[in-house]
Amino acid sequence: MSDSFRKVIAETEERHSELLKAIKEVEHAPDALVAQRRRVAELQVQVEESVSKAEKQAEKPRKEKRSTSSPFKLPFLLKRTNSKGKEKELDIPSPYVESTQEEEKERQRQAEIDRSLREAQGQRACLEDKVKEYEHLRSKLEALYDLIFNGPTPGFPAEDHLEQQVAAARVIQERVQATLDAEKRAFECIYKAEKAMRECRSKIKDALQFAATSLFASGRSAQEREASAIHSAHILARQVPVLIREARQLSPDVKPIEDMTLVREAPSRADTPDGDAFYGKLKTIASEVSRVHTQLSEERQTAITRVSAARTTVENAESTVDHYRKELATLRQTIYEEVAEKVREQMREQRYSTGEEYFIDAPPSYEYEAPSMFVQTLTPSPLVIPNKHFGQFTDSSSPVSSSSQSTFNWNSSPASTVNTRRPRPLPRPPGT
């Protein structure tokens, strides 16, 4: 273990502790988010069921109301007054009341489920933010570990071996992810080709019907529709080989399709004037289109299977990478803490050897000491003092002279001057 390695750990120890503390606060978020998403899905299903049930319950009162007698439809006819002036309600038909009560209960239940769903969705949003924060903190911690442990780490072969396993697992993950992306794109091409061939098959079928109509009833309208259908089928058929060629470039498991006459040329009555021969030619083209469409349908199902298998492989590769990453992060954290503890121990030993821990300056004294130069730093100033006992005056005959102000004797003792306070003037008598 080199000195530079110890120095880097000593410099990043505080940052490492902060990241671990922050991660510990939000490490529960991923599992909680999975459970919360499951709860939201369950509540959504309950809401759909409640809405459907409420609609059915709402239909029953309508049927009951249509079959209710006229007095019940008028609310003021439902009450009568007895001799004492008290109102007494008539008996209400029970089917309508029961259906209305059931509808009201279902509406209340639906409102409660909606409220629970909104609360669950709000909690899910908070957990999603915490998961993002957790992933961000984990990426920062991994970046810190990569800065310290990237490459060979002298003295820790287990960390180097696990780091190589993580790198190999990531290479495999990238490879299978590329395979999955290619299979998805190939499936899209096959799906487009199958859709085009399905429409082409429908157009050829229409052309056969128009050709059969032309055999028994001559007319330009049927032949024009027939030519339009053949032209549309020809355009659609020409798209299929291009899409299949692209799919085969993306995935070698895609099989080639049969060559179709409709791709090379569009049949025309000008080339085949005989109606029966032209109809037979259209039937041959229709059989080719049908076979290719069947082949593309099977190829689409096979492509779906390949995409599903590739997605499973990617999920397994991702779980393997996550497993190795967690093991590597745990090992690096253990190594980091061990080295940090050794660095702190070495620093304590170094301070002990130099005596820094035992020869420490004494703390400052907090006892109060009166400053000796306090009085001497003051500059004397003339004061007018009305009371004689506060100091010695130059004129002993009168404390206050009308012609000149008395001067305080600053040569008195410091103890008598420190506590001297200027007196407050006496209040003036009323009426003066």
TrEMBL record:
UniProt source species: Moniliophthora roreri
Keyword annotations: Coiled coil
Biased composition annotated in UniProt, kind: Basic and acidic residues: 50-62, 102-116
Coiled coil: 117-147, 307-334
UniProt-annotated stretches for the region Disordered: 45-116, 392-432
Superkingdom as given in the UniProt entry: Eukaryota
Composition bias, Low complexity: 396-413
Record-given protein name: Uncharacterized protein
